[in-house]
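FORM 12-B: Structure-to-Sequence Request
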């Protein structure tokens, strides 16, 4: 149980400390996506939660890995320098829950590379 909590803690620290913040409003992001059709065509939804949080891959795959994963909510989007398998069987898993038991929801992303 301790190892599981430690793993979730590490995932959350990586998720909050890595990446470059896009930090745009949802409407602005839609406008940007619509003005660049090649990005829209290459967008692949890797995972989606019940409340609409999505993991997306925008870039072309390199070999059998997607590079740069985007977490998108209704209000904002953030790109992370993560990679994950292009095989749909091994797409990421996204979980939302109160992992720290602090009455706040956290997001956990589980990636598979091979």
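FORM 12-B RESPONSE
SEQUENCE OUT:
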């Amino acid at each position: 149980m301790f190892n599981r909590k430690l793993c979730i803690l590490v995932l959350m620290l990586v998720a909050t400390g890595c990446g470059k913040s896009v930090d745009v409003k949802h409407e602005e992001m839609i406008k940007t996506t619509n003005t660049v059709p090649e990005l829209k065509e290459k967008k692949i939804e890797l995972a989606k939660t019940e409340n609409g949080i999505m993991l997306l891959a925008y870039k072309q795959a390199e070999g059998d890995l997607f590079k740069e994963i985007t977490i998108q909510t209704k209000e904002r989007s953030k790109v992370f320098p993560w990679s994950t398998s292009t095989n749909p069987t091994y797409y990421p898993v996204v979980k939302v829950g109160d992992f720290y038991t602090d009455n706040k929801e956290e997001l956990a992303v589980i990636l598979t590379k091979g």
